[in-house]
Amino acid sequence: MKILVWFLLPLFVFAKVHYAKVEPYESVVLKSAVSGLVLEADLDAEGTLVEDKRVIHLDDVMDNINLKDSQRSVQLLDRMISINQDIAGSLKNTVNRQEGYFQRISKLSTASKTQKDNAYNNYTSAKTQYLSTREKIVSLEKQLIDLKYKVALLSNTIGKKSIVLKQKYLYKLMVRKGDFVNPGTPLAEVQDVSRAKLVLFLEPEELKNAKEKTVYIDGKKTVYRVNKVWNVADEKFISSYRAEIYLPAPKERFSKLLKVELK
Description:
Blueprint: E1 17-21, E2 23-31, E3 36-41, E4 48-58, H1 61-106, H2 113-159, E5 162-173, E6 180-181, E7 186-202, E8 215-217, E9 220-221, E10 228-229, E11 241-248, E12 257-262
Antiparallel strand pairs: 1-12, 2-7, 3-4, 3-6, 4-5, 5-7, 7-11, 8-9, 8-12, 10-11
């Protein structure tokens, strides 16, 4: 008699080990949108978390003068329009009176031709003055629109000549005082350190249900999950797919190397 003995062997699922560096959540290079001379570059702020401070200042002296003069011109144009609107109102009343007088006298048989002609001329003259004033108002309003657009452009340009960081880590300044920059010139590398991320490069077989897998860090189970997976192979690691895991910002420092497994 043959006895068959079944040995139940535990089934182990081996997860591939990845090593990832704790990186800032986002890192960007700020580039200049305008041209200008660098008046200020705060080198002391490099390598620090900037709470609310200007770290780069481009020359905006003439822009500010131009803006101030343009804003004053806007005020003057507003006054000119208001004055001409008052004039137009008075002329409109004159036109109505002259028209009424002309209509009355033109029907009188006792009125001479000279009286009727004078009444008509006075009416048409008043109407011409009124229409001319209305045309001037339209022209002033068009100038006002153009001038307000100029003010908006100047304000926008001035705003782009100051790099102000709020709760951002200034990793590196790429310009110095005295440099002249053009649009597109790199100014600074800035990082968002409010949270961190781990970047993994997964093999195709690891992609299935990647976002549902448990993340182990340095051998310990965590509550983290894969937050983002690229569906196109990485341009550098051409057989792998980029994935990111988001973490709270480390208390001590970034760049620590961690062992990561997805199970």
